[in-house]
Amino acid sequence: MTSVEVxxxxxxxxxxxxxxxxxxxKTWGKTHSFDDYxxxxxxxxxxxxxxxxxxxxxxxxxxxxxxNHRSDVLSEVESWLAVPAGTLQAPKENxxxxxxxxxxxxxxxxxxxxxxxEFSEAISDKLIHALPDQKSEIPAASEKAVRAxxxxxxxxxxxxxxxxxxxxxxxxxxxxxxxPLVSSEFETEHFYFSTRQLMALSELFxxxxxxxxxxxxxxxxxxxxxxxxxxxx
Length: 233
Description:
Elements: E1 5-10, H1 13-26, H2 34-40, H3 43-56, E2 60-65, H4 73-81, H5 102-114, H6 120-130, H7 143-160, H8 175-182, H9 185-189, H10 195-206, H11 216-232
Parallel strand pairs: 1-2
Helix pairs in contact: 2-7, 3-7, 5-6, 6-10, 7-8
């Protein structure tokens, strides 16, 4: 019988929820708010289901909390694979697939809603690759949504943590730590772009100029415009 060994990275709830929400906007074309996403987040519960499945099928599972291993992911994976140190090489870029700023994220979310989810990767990829050193931001959320999320996470984590190695267990972030990161009425109503951000977006849109080879994004615009014209007839 073939043995199966699984390496699973988890992440502290709010830390993971903020990152995962960005992915839903950037690559999945979603349009929901961070408040709405927080109300549906249930990864600790899903981890329990995952571990139960693995146990029932005789799979060996090692859990590592990424929130504790941001700086040593490669060495941890090498250790688990039992390969010599240095076998896995880090990318040359210091920052890979950064999160978006609040303004970038809101632009992306609105484009998903008003134009098409097909544009998700085109806009965010342009910003990420052109400005890899741009400081990212935690999405804005209401105090009510954050407190409800943290309360729910405490209940889910209390059930799953006994199944995890003590050093790798979930830590539910404190409300006093999270709220200053997400609560800003001014920031939720005003959005700003630097000159560098505007230049990156302008380069993307400039591909629509006559005589220039169009990117996938440009071809998608043409396709969408054609569909609109057909519906208008």
